Amino acid sequence: LRFLDAGESHGKMLVAILEGFPSNVPIDIENINKQLQRRQIGFGRGTRMKIESDRIEIISGVRGGKTTGAPICISIKNKDYENWAEVMDFQKEYNEKITIPRPGHADLNGFLKYNLDDIRNVIERASARETAIRVAIGAICMELLKFFDVKFISRVVMIGNIEDFSYIDSYNEDLINKIESSPIRCLHKDIEKKMIKEIQIAKEIGETIGGAIEVIAFGVPVGLGSYSFYDRRMDYLISGAMMSIQGVKAVEIGNGIKSSKLYGSEFNDKIIFEDGRFSRKTNNLGGIEGGITNGMPIKVRLFMKPIPTTRREFETFDVHGNVVKSRYERSDVCAVPALAVIAENVLAYEVAKEMINKFAGDSLEDLLISFEHYINRVNRG
Ligand code: EPS
Questions:
Q1: Going by C-beta distance under 8 Å and a sequence separation of 6 or more, which residues neighbour residue 321?
Q2: Count of helices and strands (H, E) across the chain
Q3: Which of this chain's residues are annotated to bind FMN (predicted)?
């Protein structure tokens, strides 16, 4: 399974081609759109999200409501393009060039690397707008994963200094409802209030604020990934994918950070064998041992930096080396709740990719036969 995507933040649309996806998987477009909507909401977003109401268009690879096995081509329109048509015109040069790079963004490095004369070219492709199409790709993967009973939960566990690292060990609807009804995907109402306050304060003083999210995949079978090669390790694949999400500066799998302070016997997840099935007593390792999934929920935390664009003005340099006042470009104050939804869908893609690798089949039916055979072997009950 692989995909390529393209598109600028204020261009006509975002597009992607997903290749290697099995045939006969029912695709309910409303499920994909629901994931896109979830990504758009969240306290702290800027005005752009009021302009967009992201919806997917399927261009190829799905017919009669089911995947055909052919490449799946999708697009998401940028409604804001109407306001940017002149700036983004592919032929006619736009004369107002951006020459003041914003620290913390790709602006300066991209400008130098690609030998550009306008930072706009960097901003447009480096933008986190690209995560919309990645969510759509992940949402298509979720349609496949439903057949294997793989489910996801994501939530915000930190905004600035306010934390909620409470423990979640099972998937349940009550939990989901609480998270989904929170404007910042926080599980506990009292903490939610404090988190919202943190964002409000940042906004009032012209600042931005970061935080952390947790994503958990339930129902992933034992045996995805491998210890055999570095690039087949599941933690390598997941952490690489997660670090590629704009703004993410650290990834933790399971209780990875705490692990460095504990004794081996304290941290180990003890093996248990009940009703013919192996399991673990705890899940400190976040569902991955030796680069292979162990059947426990995959648990990942992502830490996001504050968005670099601040309304607060400061002195900086333009691309010619002159001292200038910083340039402000419309932005979000906090995008941590959106990151949770993005991470869920990015994880769905990585899990689906490894499921397809392991249970190799060109159709959903072939995958399921291979999966059932394997599950019967590893569960001896
Ligand atoms: C972004 C800047 C803002 C965000 C954008 C990411 O967009 P704009 O410059 O149009 O105000 O809203 O995020 C999205 C558009 C999105 O869909 O998430 C940036 O510079 O990365």
A1: none
A2: 13, 17
A3: 125-127, 246-247, 290, 305-309, 330
Kindly provide the ipTM of the predicted complex, given to two decimals.
0.96
List phi, psi (to 5°) of 162.
-90, 125
The protein residue whose alpha carbon is closest to atom 14 in ligand 1 is 129
Which CATH number covers residue 52? 3.60.150.10
Q: How far is residue 29's CA from residue 32's CA, in Å, rounded to a whole number?
A: 5
Q: Is 55 annotated as a binding residue?
A: no
Interatomic CA distance for residues 189 and 94, integer angstroms: 48
pLDDT value at residue 381? 59
Mean pLDDT, each 10-residue run in order, the chain (381 residues): 98 98 98 98 93 97 98 98 98 97 97 98 98 98 98 98 93 95 96 98 96 98 98 98 98 96 96 94 97 98 96 95 94 96 98 97 97 93 59
Helix (H) or strand (E) holding 232: none
User: Does ligand 1 have an atom closer than 6 angstroms to the CB of 9?
Assistant: yes
Spell out the residues 6+ positions from residue 206 whose beta carbon is closer than 8 angstroms to its own.
310, 311, 312
DSSP label of 363: B
Distance of CA 128 to the CA centre of its chain: 11
Residue 344 token pair: 């869920």
Domain count, the chain: 1
Whole-number pLDDT of residue 380? 76
Q: In degrees rounded to 5, what are phi and psi of residue 59?
A: -100, -35
The verdict on whether residue 309 carries a ligand-binding annotation is yes
- The pLDDT, as a whole number, for residue 356 is 98
Domain that holds residue 128: 2-378
- Quick check: CB of 102 below 6 Å from ligand 1? no
Q: How far is CA 355 from CA 149, 230, 240, 297, in A?
A: 12, 18, 18, 15
CA distance linking residue 304 with residue 296, whole number of Å: 25
Q: How far is the CA of 120 from the centre of ligand 1 (A)?
A: 13
